[in-house]
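Hi V.,

You were right to ask for the full record rather than a summary. Here it is.
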Amino acid sequence: HEFRSTLKALPNWTRVLGSAEEQTDAFYACVSEQEVCSAAALSWQKIIRQSFDLPPMEQLTTVNSYFNRWPYRLDIDVYGVSDYWATPGEFMKLSGDCEDYSISKYYALRKLGFSVDDMRIVLLKDTIRNISHAVLAVKMGDESYILDNLSDMVLSHLKYSHYVPQYSFHDFYRWAHVSPSALR
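Predicted structure:
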């Protein structure tokens, strides 16, 4: 079961929302002949151009694989704090951890025309590794597909029985996920 609420409980996400759209617009607007474009801007443009005319499922796979090439880096090593959610601009420069991959993929897919209503960043419990993890879930038709920094494959959420969602969110709402057994 899921219960929808406001984004108030997610200050890290609220901070990302405050600048991510502007950052990605600036990346996409940069024209290398007229100005010096940052490596991040050129990289952003590359993935959008590579993916733009592909069918939706191929867009998911291309975006997932592209961002998965960045090295995994812990927040404490990059930002000096235990939990920091990077904007796409920060991720493109410094890389990051699982939620940072998910955030960059989310904004890339938005630029490719995917609806916010069809995407959620999901914070979950990986019961095999016994750790918290984050992925991007994208709904297409009646199915939700998972973009995970641990794999370039984009598979149905049904293939991830070891992933137990804790909460998810997008631009407008947060959802708490509770197993039916917990409600008894």
